[in-house]
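agent: user wants the structure for Translin from Gavia stellata. delegating to structure tool.
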Amino acid sequence: VPKKCQKAREHFSTVRTQLESLKTKFPEDHTQPFHEHWRFVLQRLVFLAAFVVYLESETLVTREAVAEILGIEADRERGFHLDIEDYLSGVLTLASELARLAVNSVTAGDYSRPLRISTFINELDSGFRLLNLKNDSLRKRYDGLKYDVKKIEEVVYDLSIRGLNKEATVGAGGEK
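agent: tool returned. relaying tokens verbatim.
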């Protein structure tokens, strides 16, 4: 995993070069009208950066760190920037991918990773519940997080009832 993460980080230099080129096409204070043209790409790049950081440290990358990885600004006032909604959408995509990783980890015989993913996703869900999301695409993406939480809870529950991980058994409130 560390070698793959390092290789992925090397690809971000190409991304930075491309975004640097894109920045020159618009006046610094006039990128907002064109934001829809690159919104999806930025959301996907946020996901990729967040996934690499998660695989390296099992932590959530900050918006500022993603902006730095991509070579753009975190603040709107400073020009071409990472919009907060794009950051949050990318993080929600990370949650979906981590739900898949939890299932695949069990298949590969790694019974402790789903527990760590469960803790991370539950903390992420708690953070999103604090937000007052409008009825837009971000709200719909957040609604999908509930299914990711449920999917991971089912994996942890299955591990606990099968006795495949002592921590899963204790964490689920059961006894071995």
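agent: one observation worth passing along. The two ends are 32 Å apart (CA to CA).
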